[in-house]
Predict the structure.
Amino acid sequence: MKMVSLEQELKNNSYPGRGIVIGRTADGKKAAAGYFIMGRSENSRNRIFVEEGEGIRTQAFDPSKLQDPSLIIYAPVRVLKNQTIVTNGDQTDTVYEGLEKGLTFEQSLRSREFEPDAPNYTPRISGVLQVENGTFSYAMSILKSNNGDPAQCNRYTFDYTNCVAGEGHFIHTYMHDGNPLPSFEGEPKLVEIPDDIDAFTHLLWNSLNEDNKVSLFVRYIDIESGNYETRIVNKNRK
């Protein structure tokens, strides 16, 4: 697979929706995860990321303007021992509970499908990073309607082991802006992962469409120690 420029992928797409990037830094020492949200409606844009335990939660920036919270208020990131779960919806909790019961990542998501937001039927995208005894592996998933037909849910899981330094994968909900919004197609895209968490955060945030971007989370996890650094950027600031 040819590596693509994450910067150009984002700059050339005004509305990729929500996106997950997971990979290994160029020096091989850290596991990296990034998650961003975007919005076109006032309800979607009225959000911020806040820390919750070892993870994060979305929260209304202005509670008085919050309309339907069902698909916009959730915990995108949760940590279960040596596993970090990143998703674009409340399936974070589904994966967490499944892993806790001994199910695999893929098995945990069997009970879920795309979001019930006709006519878009937004895909549920998910990722899990496992850092253990100096090793790092990750998996990504997308649950999507069958070419916009909600009668069928298509499920795809991508598993990455022996992760190559400097490489990662990027998956997002929409191919581009539209009405209805067209679901992501194909494999997660191969992208470069730099060593510097601040440089990576800056690249992601500054490449997202200025009108539509809402919030960004980035975490780098030391593969040997399990210690991590986190960056959160919110367009809405108090």
Summary: The mean pLDDT is 97. Residues 197-207 form the longest helix (11 residues). The CA atoms of residues 53 and 78 lie 8 Å apart.
